[in-house]
Design goal:
The protein has about 240 residues and is α+β, with helices and mostly antiparallel strands. It contains seven helices and twelve strands. It binds 2-oxoglutaric acid and fe (ii) ion.
Length: about 240
């Protein structure tokens, strides 16, 4: 039932990957970090900062050699859950990422620029929940009026406004779980990772081809409001 997804804004599929697959991916991600030294992206933000490392789309095959198979499996599930017509965003750097969030790391409140985002949790850590307010945005049509859009987004992001008008969901990172969410209408963030190990998650971005104009506008929005963190694929202009 794909209408269910668009109405709810999120869908969860536990045990999408086996523990064995996840462990193997985690080992090679950590190995890549050890040998190449993934850049730490850090930007202090009130309430919840941005502090994580990322394997971007150009590097991802080095960490997950069968990333194309994995992507194909996700896309079969994507079509079942969200319906037809979605494709990876046309940005090779940002379309397929692995987020590696160290202890104390977190991911600031934001909307994604694309229609549907898939997250696969490769391991479990204390903390590190994805905090979600699904279908919680006043999105102005066609990416116009960017200044007003920014104002609206900032307003909705306020804690008391979220509490008043939004419905909070906390998704704990469970190994092998696949999460789909409506990216550009869902306010979300990652809570601080506690404990001693890195939180590792695959993030895949999908959109309806031909909506470039809107995405570009949202890119601008992300770019200008975030003053571009170098190396962060999610903040490219
Ligand atoms: O890792 C997560 O749970 C969410 C990450 C995220 O929102 C992003 O990379 O845009
Ligand atoms: Fe996101």
């Amino acid at each position: 039932m794909t209408t269910e997804f668009w109405k709810e804004g999120i869908a969860l599929q536990p045990h999408f990957l086996s523990a064995q697959e996840c462990e193997q991916h985690c080992r090679s991600v950590l190995e890549l970090d050890r040998t190449e030294g993934l850049p730490l992206i850090e930007r202090r933000v009130r309430e919840r900062s941005l502090k994580y490392k990322v394997v971007n789309g150009l590097l991802i095959a080095e960490a997950i050699t069968d990333i194309d198979d994995l992507t194909t499996r996700v896309e079969a599930e994507l079509e079942r859950t969200c319906g037809p017509g979605l494709a990876p965003i046309e940005d090779a750097v940002a379309a397929r990422n692995i987020n590696v969030t160290p202890p104390g790391g977190e991911y600031r409140w934001h909307y994604d620029r694309n229609a549907v985002t898939a997250i696969i949790y490769l391991n479990e850590v204390p903390g590190g929940e994805t905090e979600i307010f699904a279908n919680y945005r006043i999105l102005l049509r066609g990416g116009r009026y960017q200044k007003i859009q920014r104002r609206l987004d900032s307003l909705l992001r306020l804690r008391f406004v979220r509490r008043l008008f939004g419905r909070q969901r906390l998704v704990e990172p469970h190994q092998g779980t696949l999460l789909f969410m409506r990216g550009n209408t869902t306010l979300h963030s990652v809570r601080a990772v506690l404990g001693t190990g890195d939180r590792i998650a695959v993030v895949l971005s999908y959109d309806f081809p031909g909506r470039e104009h809107r995405r570009d506008a949202l890119n601008d929005y992300l770019y200008t409001s975030a003053s571009a963190s170098p190396g962060d694929p999610n903040y490219r202009g």
